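Retro notes (design track)

What went well: tokenization of the new backbones is finally stable.
What didn't: we kept losing track of which sequence belonged to which structure.
Fix going forward: every design gets posted as structure first, then sequence, in one message. First example under the new rule, 321 residues:
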């Protein structure tokens, strides 16, 4: 958010994946004959020579968390720094502060139109990120990369649509009517905000439906198991993003205001579609997809850990220009 400053399986081995198939009498689908966590029970062994995951098998938890953290960090970095910060510099402004969840652009010498462009740049980059990710997702077969692109693209589109809704309802944020918003000074304000909120609600619902339709062909479970698989993966990703943003946000010198208005708002609020997009899935779909299972990858874990740590250390406390 730009602001002036308004806080914004190998054969014979047990899979590391997890089985989300529901057992009779268990509405939550959390029971399993295998030993595992209540949320994500362990998947059954695959038959020798079986090259695909068993229906309902979910990915390795550690790798799933790593991919989720990386997607969330990259999404906010692109929004803030490729979007707001780059626009500020290109239009002749001076970036006074580079935060993890905001950019403070010095507007001295910039016209009102330029200021609007700086505010619009963040949501625009989020939109482009989402569209690009889903475009290159089509031929991707590798499950880790598929899920990473799907999640990053979903976060990007939800962020772009979410800002329409958020700024319309609250009047603040990148598309808000305050001094750092793209619609600052517009009249009548109530009408602009109403149109913005309505457009945001419609766009967000479309994005959630789009996310579901792009993930659906990948699923290899049927009936209620189909829904549980997607639900458990998305829940882990959602919680990972919230925790990562919260931890980084705590180190911001602006304190709790950044945590509440930017970090948690963009993670828990902006990406809340991950919690209910499953309602758009077709539970009667065929189990034709390759599934969402992937084994542990220390390479993904290492890359996610290093990049998340660097981003948090550098931009968490705020980098001053």
């Amino acid at each position: 958010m730009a602001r002036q400053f308004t806080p914004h399986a190998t054969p014979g081995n047990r899979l590391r994946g997890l089985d989300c198939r529901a057992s009779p009498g268990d509405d939550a689908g959390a029971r399993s004959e295998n030993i595992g966590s209540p949320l994500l029970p362990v998947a059954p062994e695959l038959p020798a020579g079986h090259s695909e995951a068993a229906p309902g098998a979910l990915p390795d938890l550690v790798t799933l968390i790593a991919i989720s953290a990386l997607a969330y960090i990259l999404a906010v970095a692109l929004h803030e720094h490729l979007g707001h910060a780059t626009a500020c510099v290109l239009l002749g402004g001076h970036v006074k502060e580079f935060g993890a969840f905001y950019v403070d652009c010095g507007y001295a010498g910039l016209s009102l139109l330029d200021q609007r462009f700086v505010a619009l740049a963040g949501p625009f980059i989020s939109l482009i990120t989402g569209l690009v990710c889903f475009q290159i997702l089509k031929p991707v077969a590798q499950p880790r990369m598929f899920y990473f692109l799907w999640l990053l693209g979903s976060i990007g589109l939800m962020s772009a649509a979410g800002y329409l809704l958020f700024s319309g309802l609250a009047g603040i944020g990148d598309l808000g009517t305050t001094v750092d918003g793209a619609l600052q000074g517009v009249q009548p304000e109530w009408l602009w905000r109403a149109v913005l909120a309505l457009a945001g609600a419609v766009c967000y619902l479309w994005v959630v439906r789009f996310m579901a339709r792009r993930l659906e062909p990948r699923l290899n479970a049927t009936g209620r198991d189909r829904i549980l698989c997607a639900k458990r993966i998305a829940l882990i990703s959602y919680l990972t993003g919230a925790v990562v943003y919260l931890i980084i946000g705590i180190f911001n010198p602006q304190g709790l205001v950044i945590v509440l208005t930017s970090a948690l708002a963009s993670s828990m609020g902006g990406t809340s579609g991950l919690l209910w997009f499953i309602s758009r899935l077709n539970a009667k779909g065929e189990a034709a997809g390759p599934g969402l299972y992937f084994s542990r990858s220390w390479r993904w874990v290492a890359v996610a850990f290093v990049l998340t740590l660097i981003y948090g250390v550098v931009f968490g406390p705020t980098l001053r220009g």
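Added context from the reviewer: The longest strand covers residues 94-98.
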